What we know:
Largest sheet: 10 strands, mixed
Bound molecules: guanosine-5'-diphosphate, 6-O-phosphoryl inosine monophosphate, magnesium ion
Strand content: 15-25%
Oligomer: single chain
Number of helices: 11
CATH class of the largest domain: Alpha Beta
Radius of gyration: 21 Å
CATH superfamily of the largest domain: Adenylosuccinate Synthetase, subunit A, domain 1
Distance between the termini: 20 Å
Amino acid sequence: MQIDVILGLQWGDEGKGKIVDYLAEQYDIVARFQGGPNAGHTLKFGGNKYILHTVPSGIFRPQQINLVGNGVVLDPVIFQRELEKLDASGVQFHDRLLLSRKAHLILPTHRWLDAASEAHKGKSKIGSTLKGIGPTYMDKTGRNGLRVGDVEQSGFKEQYEHLKQKHLELLKIYPPVPFDLEGEEKAWFASLDTLRSLPFVDSEYYIDEALRAGKRVLAEGAQGAMLDIDFGTYPFVTSSNTITAGVCTGLGVAPQRIGRVIGITKAYCTRVGSGPFPTELHDADGDKLREAGHEFGSTTGRPRRCGWIDLPQLRYTIQLTGTTDLCITKIDVLNSFKTIAAATHYRYNGQESSALPYDLCQVEVEALLKHYDGWECDLDEVHRMEDLPENARAFLADLEAYLGVPIHMVSTGPEREKLLVKEG
Ligand code: GDP
Ligand code: IMO
Ligand code: MG
C-alpha cells in the first residue's frame, strides 16, 4: 500500500484538521509527520468545536489508530492538556494513540529560549507561536535533543539537567524575559506520566508493517508549504519540512511509498506572524475576509493577515509537494463579495513573472490580479460541486486550469459535513 498525504499549500491554517477528520474514516492510521504545538487544527461536528495541537485529527473517529511521528516535536504539558480535553469529551484514545520513540521533546527552557530569541530580534521577530519549536529543532539537528523514548531510560534525569544547563548558559546572550522555570519544570515532569501511559512505538517499523499488511495510512501535515524551512519565505518560516519530503523523514517512509498528495488551499489567503505576503489586503476587503472567515489564530488568537488567493505561490508549492488533488476550503467566506480576485502573476525587477523571486523578503513584488464576479449568495443548500452557483464554478475552473491539478474537494463551511467531494 501507499501512504496518502494531506498538507497545507499556503502559510498554514488552510483547514487541514477539518479535511483530515473527514477523510480519516477511509484510513486505518492517521499520522502526524512534523511540527508541534505551534499547530492548531480545528474540527467541528455535532455542534462542538475541538482544537488539536499535537494529537492527529483522526482521533475522533473511533476505529482509527493515530500516530505522532518522529518528525514531530512534542510538549508533554500541552499534550497532557489535549488528552484531558479528549477525556472530558468522552473520546477513548488509550490504545489507539501511539507515540514515536524518536519524536523530540520540547523542554520548558526551549520555550524560554524561543521567547528570549524573539525579544532579542525586536522588530524583525519571526512572530513565532512561542511554543519552543525553533529551539527544539535546533537541538535535534545540533544532536543535543531529548526524545520521547529517552523517558524510558534510566539516565533521563541527567540528560535533562545537562540540556537545561546548556540552555541556561545560552539564555545569557539574550535580554532577560520573565519565566517561572521552577513552576514550568514541575508541570513538565508531572506530565511525563501521561506520556508514559501511552504506547511508544518504533514508528518506522510500525508503518512499514502496516503498509505491508494492506493498511491504509494518511499522513497529516502541520503549517503550510510556504512555512517550510527550506522553501518557505525564509527566515519567516517554521523549523521543519512541511512539504511531502517531510513525510519521508518525519515518519520513516521511502519516497516511492507516497501515494496521493492532497494539497489544501483556502479560496483566498492568510498568514499569521511576520514575513512577506504578496497579495495581502490592507483595505476593507481584507477586513471583510478576516471577519467572514473568523481569521484569528487557533493557537495564539492573533488576528490573521488576509489577502486574495495567490496562484504563482500555489503553483510553486504544488510543484514542491507533488500535489495530485486539490482541496479548496472556505469558499463560503467569499459569498458576499461582489467581486473577488486572484493573483496570476507577479511584477518585480521591472518584469512580469509567474515564478517566485529568490528572496521574497528582499524584493518588492507587485501581485497582478485577475478579477471575477462573485456569486453573492450562501452555499448552505449546495451538496454537490455541480450545484455550486455558476460564478463559483467559473472561478474554480479557472483555478484548476491555472494550477494544472484537479480540484477534488470544496469546503463550504467549518462543519464536518460541509464538504463537496467530486465523484469518481
Ligand atoms: P488548520 O490549521 O489547517 O487545521 O486550520 P485551522 O483550524 O487553524 O483554521 C481553519 C479555520 O477555518 C477553523 O476555524 C475551521 O473551523 C474553519 N474552516 C475550515 N473549513 C472551513 C470552510 O470551508 N468554511 C469556513 N467558513 N470555515 C472553515
Ligand atoms: P497550522 O498547523 C499558521 C507560523 C508562526 C510564525 C512562524 C514560525 O495550524 O496550520 P513557530 O512557532 O513555528 O516557530 O512560528 O510560523 N506558524 C503558523 N502559522 N498555522 C500554523 O500551524 C503555524 N505554525 C507556525 O505564526 O509566523
Ligand atoms: Mg491552524
